[in-house]
Write a structure and sequence with these properties.
- With 116 residues, the chain is mainly α.
- It has a single domain, classed as Arc Repressor Mutant, subunit A, CATH 1.10.10.
- The chain has five helices and two strands; from the N terminus they run H-H-H-H-E-E-H.
- The protein has a two-stranded antiparallel sheet.
- Helix 1 runs antiparallel to helix 5.
Length: 116
């Protein structure tokens, strides 16, 4: 049976899974991974999203659910928080060395799957 999947993408998924299994990265549940990817897109646009913006940016999850996953991502070391100096109620989500390493390795997986 032929499947309409991209072999390159399948290679990427296999490499990414191996990275997750063979490294010391804390495990992410699917919602945490989704949220971290969403935040990474914002970081790529040279912005640090606020916690409040992020809590209301996903129609798939309630704000309280997003907040719970943000807390888990922070505890696991994937995100940090910077307090806005003019209003300490506003907190911005910033990347950490762990998230930089995580996305760097995933990028290498993508590069390797495309050239393999």
């Amino acid at each position: 049976m032929n499947t309409p999947t991209s072999l390159t993408y399948i290679k990427f998924l296999n490499l990414a899974q191996a990275i997750r299994e063979l490294t010391d990265f804390p495990a992410l549940n699917p919602m945490e991974e989704y949220l971290l990817n969403h935040i990474a897109l914002t970081w790529h646009a040279n912005k640090n999203p606020s916690v409040s913006e992020t809590m209301h940016a996903s129609p798939e999850m309630s704000p309280s659910t997003v907040h719970r996953h943000l807390k888990a991502l922070r505890i696991k070391g994937f995100i940090g928080l910077d307090v806005y100096e003019l209003d300490n109620r506003v907190k911005y989500i910033v990347h950490t060395p762990l998230s930089q390493q995580y996305f760097s390795l995933l990028g290498q997986c993508l590069d390797n799957s495309a050239t393999a």
